[in-house]
Amino acid sequence: MAELSINAISAHLGRAADPANSTHMRGRAYEAALVHVFDGIPGCVTQSNSLNRFASEEVDISVMNFRERDGLRALPELFLVECKNWSRPVDSARVSTFATKIRHRDCTLGVLVAASGVTGDPYEKTAAYQAAANALLERTRILLLTTDDLMALTSSKDVVNLLHRRLLDLIAAGTFTLA
Question: Rounded to the nearest 10 degrees, what angle do helices 6-17 and 23-39 cross at?
Fold first, then answer.
């Protein structure tokens, strides 16, 4: 387990936001920030950029969670992370595609990291929020994080608290939240 470093997160996010870098490089830098975040949580091990054997679906980050005492005790042993370093909000079609990818891997949880958030309204459950609500009805949970969430992290304890809170919010609200 690597120690969570705010400087490392900031450096990765800086490369992810640098318009001088290619879209591919910005995407990989964003993913690297998330690998650093999850590797800094006690009991978590990551694997990046895995293709299925048909080369039709790529998983940005897979997380093995050993549920250590100071780690992600409320999250399942295996879950996926999808990184969208986009300048626009992620739409419902992409949320639905991620939910399908989660199910295809026989997982029950995914973390969507959307730099600019998602489309729709959480209270009306429109657009991407409806897609997350539909996934929940199919026993697929999706937690939502943004760049603002990442920039507010100061320790692995912050990450654990944030993800546990988002899980509780998901169940209580019936869709993902940014509360």
Answer: 160
Burial of 38-59, coded b for 16+ CB within 10 Å and e otherwise, reads bbbbbbbebebeeeeeeeeeeb
d(CA 30, CA 95): 18
Provide the pairing of β-strand 78-84 with 44-51: unpaired
- To the nearest whole number, what is the mean pLDDT of the chain? 94
Interatomic CA distance for residues 52 and 5, integer angstroms: 31
CA-wise closest residue to 78 among 69, 67, 94: 67
Contact residues for 109 (Cβ-Cβ < 8 A; gap 6+): 75, 76, 79, 80, 102, 140, 141, 142, 143
Q: Where are the alpha helices (DSSP H) in the chain?
A: 6-17, 23-39, 92-104, 128-137, 147-151, 156-173
Q: Is residue 98 over pLDDT 70?
A: yes
What would the two tokens of residue 84 be?
A: 């969208």
What does each C-alpha distance from 136 to 102, 113, 130 come to in angstroms?
Answer: 12, 17, 10
For the CA atoms of 118, 158, 62, 34, the dihedral, rounded to the nearest 10 degrees, stands at 70
Q: Could you give the CA distance from residue 62 to residue 177 in angstroms, rounded to a whole number?
A: 22
**The pLDDT of residue 100 is above 90:** yes
